[in-house]
Amino acid sequence: MIIHLKNTVAEPVAHEIAHQLQAIVFKEADCFVLVTPFALKSLPDAVLPHVQATWPMDTDIQLASKSYKNELRRIRWGSTEIGGDTNHTVVIAGPCSIESWEQIESVAKLLKSLNISTLRAGCYKPRTSPYTFQGLGLEGLKMLAEVRRQYGLNIITEVKDSSHIEAVIEYTDIVQIGAKAMYDQSILRRCGEIRKPVLLKRGFGTTLQEFVQAAEFILSGGNSEVILCERGIRTFETKTRFTFDLCGAAWLKQHTNCTVILDPSHAMGYAYGVPDLAKASVAFGCDGLLIETHPNPKEAKSDASQQLDFEEFTNLMTDMRKIAGAVGKELI
Ligand code: PEP
Ligand code: MN
């Protein structure tokens, strides 16, 4: 059950009630919000005078549920906004990894020329092998901060584990939690405490239920700005890197109040399929796309096979703008 306390209820009282109900408590703009285990069906008499509104729930998808907030959560960073009553589809683009100043500066210039506001590049890479490029770490974060300063772009980068979470939070405008880190509860809980958007990627072996439950860790910490990202799941198929779960994305759209961003690059794993999937994603009506682009994909230090070169990416932007217009969306 979700409970909004009256806005006159003071913090110690809110915490006392939360303790009594074994509820999680956090402060929203104008009141304290309590979330109790879903089995709770009624409230003790002594608590009732403090209560403004309640939403009984029969699953532990609570704060993300449409039956709590029917409208799409509004997510803002810099001057960019998605969700709420906007019709925006945001394009977030960049290389898989930041590799050098020259590389990231060329991407920044490309994005600026295409009116794209948000650059994504990984600094801490969750590689499957310890023998491959692991990312530039803090040096990469500092370069991204310099990109923001010089080019006015917003920055999103990934947190891989809790050892560098504070640095990522400090340097970025949006924190990305990658598919492999999606179950890390110390990352999820820490992201619940911050007041920046968090892009949560679905693990490739994660059910939709588990995915939204992970989002609940962030939401129940009081951070209302969670973006869900579908990036492909593992199926029996081996010809493509993963299987792009648009059915899952449709389910998220129908049942949750979180914005949904689609990542065709990681789903497909091969550049040849990315433009078609990206166009399908725009037609689908997603709130945003995450697309990997690199000045010289063949030489990329991670995810070389799936990154678009600048010409492919530029052509894709032209096509996506047309499709967005046809489905009543504005590509930003
Ligand atoms: C990435 O975004 O570059 C990445 C590692 O993606 P994922 O977490 O989806 O595998
Ligand atoms: Mn990548």
Q: Give the domain tally.
A: 2
Helix content: 25-40%
Average pLDDT works out at 97
Per CATH, the superfamily of the largest domain is Aldolase class I
Whole-angstrom Rg: 20 Å
Written account of the structure:
- Strands 7-8-9-10-11-12-13-14 form an eight-stranded parallel beta barrel, surrounded by seven helices. A four-stranded antiparallel beta sheet has the order 2-3-1-4, covered by helices on one side.
- The protein folds into two domains: 2-55; 75-331, TIM Barrel.
- The mean pLDDT is 97.
- Helix 2 (101-113) runs parallel beside helix 3, helix 5 (185-193) crosses helix 6 (208-219) and helix 9 (274-284) packs parallel to helix 10.
- It is an alpha/beta fold and 332 residues long.
- Helices cover 33% and strands 19% of the residues.
- The two termini are 37 Å apart.
- It binds phosphoenolpyruvate and manganese (II) ion.
- Manganese (II) ion is lined by residues 96, 266, 292, 302-303.
Key words describing this protein structure:
single chain; 332 residues; alpha/beta; TIM Barrel; 2 domains; 8-stranded parallel barrel; 4-stranded antiparallel β-sheet; 10 helices; binds phosphoenolpyruvate
Task: Describe, in short, the structure shown.
The chain contains 10 helices and 15 strands.
Topology of this structure?
Layout: E1 2-5, H1 11-21, E2 24-27, E3 32-35, E4 51-55, E5 75-77, E6 80-82, E7 88-94, H2 101-113, E8 118-120, H3 138-151, E9 154-159, H4 165-171, E10 174-177, H5 185-193, E11 198-201, H6 208-219, E12 226-230, H7 246-255, E13 259-262, H8 264-268, H9 274-284, E14 288-292, H10 310-326, E15 330-331
Parallel strand pairs: 7-8, 7-14, 7-15, 8-9, 9-10, 10-11, 11-12, 12-13, 13-14
Antiparallel strand pairs: 1-3, 1-4, 2-3, 5-6
The chain binds phosphoenolpyruvate and manganese (II) ion (MN).
